[in-house]
Amino acid sequence: MVGGTLRDIRSHVSGLSAPTGPYAVVCARTAREPVPLAGERFDSREDAERAADMADEYHSALRRYDPEAPRHHLIVRDAAGPPAPRSNADSDVRLRYVAFCHDVSGAVFEALSETGFRAAESAAMETYLTLAEVVEDRDDFCLAMLWSAMNELDIGLDAADQRTVVDAAAELFGGTTRGATRPAPTVGSALERTLARLDEASFLDGYDVAACAGGDAWEATFADYALAERTGRLPTLPIAVDLVRRLPDRPVAFTEATPLADRRWRLRVEAVDLSDSNADDPAGLVSLDAADEGRLNETDYRL
Questions:
Q1: CB–CB of 289/257 below 8 Å?
Q2: 133 exposure class (CB count in 10 Å sphere: 0-12, 13-18, 19+)
Q3: Which of 125, 129, 250, 287 has the lowest tally of Cβ within 10 angstroms?
Q4: Is residue 74 part of a domain?
Q5: Residue 28: what pLDDT?
Q6: 164 and 46 share a domain?
Q7: Are 247 and 302 contacting, i.e. CB atoms less than 8 angstroms apart?
Q8: Domain check: are 42 and 158 in the same one?
Q9: What pLDDT is stored for residue 240 in this prediction?
């Protein structure tokens, strides 16, 4: 399956990497390190260039299922130097969207293979191949792939297994943190950075984060979410994968999703204390039932 292929390619990239190496590989158009290069450093330009070739193979494997999988223009740069400039051309805005979808999908398929949930991996790919036959907009192939993985996780795994897969996908998606140790972010600041990442990728349009009174909880409001549904469910998987990779030692749960006017959603995020023996496994990391499902059926409600 695709997850095993992607894992094999990643292992070759990891074999070339060096934790304190001076070189990194980025996409010249998005200025980001795409999966499976995120967080990786290399001792020589030659090793970095070989890793870039492996990354091209990674995305070629995805392109067998989605012809629109991105073709990154990968360049080697000094990891300690200033960030590469980001292009805002329309074609590159689209690239950021498609690349984000595929980076999350690739990490999730890898995680399903790595954690042994092969039946869910196979079911997700079968669902995607069925959907791909009726997709009209080629840009929607990447979204269909991500939705298929989310849906099979949602219906096939319990909360504990979902957390296992999301934790593994988060590590694969973000890469290992290199260099100087940084202070651990708060849940609120990490949530803001996650939504900024999705906003940059045009996966949503505008967001706000506010702390809730009386506890470790935050409410995020965002608009034009690419995976929004009318089924009474908010798919949260891409938000969870990016947020969890920023908070590897601070479990969180998504506890309430409310549809609002003007294609907006409000999502409640809570910190979870797993040292409490009565605490449940973090929930809502794949999807969440809408708190006001009737709102989705109002005539003036638009997704």
A1: yes
A2: exposed
A3: 129
A4: yes
A5: 87
A6: yes
A7: no
A8: yes
A9: 98
Write out pLDDT tens, residues 123-176: 999 999 999 888 888 778 999 999 999 999 999 999 999 999 999 999 999 764
Q: What is the CATH number of the domain that holds 284?
A: 3.30.980
Q: Comparing C-alpha atoms, which of 267, 297, 40 is closest to residue 49?
A: 40
pLDDT of residue 81: 75
For residue 286, is pLDDT > 60? yes
Residue 178 clears pLDDT 50, i.e. is over it:
no
**23 domain-assigned:** yes
pLDDT of residue 294: 55
Contact assessment for residue 247 and residue 183, using Cβ atoms and an 8 Å cutoff: no
CB 295 within 8 A of CB 302: no
Phi, psi of 104 (to 5 degrees): -70, -45
Instruction: Report strand pairing: 252-259 vs 264-271.
Output: antiparallel
Rounded Cα–Cα distance for residues 170 and 212 (Å) = 25
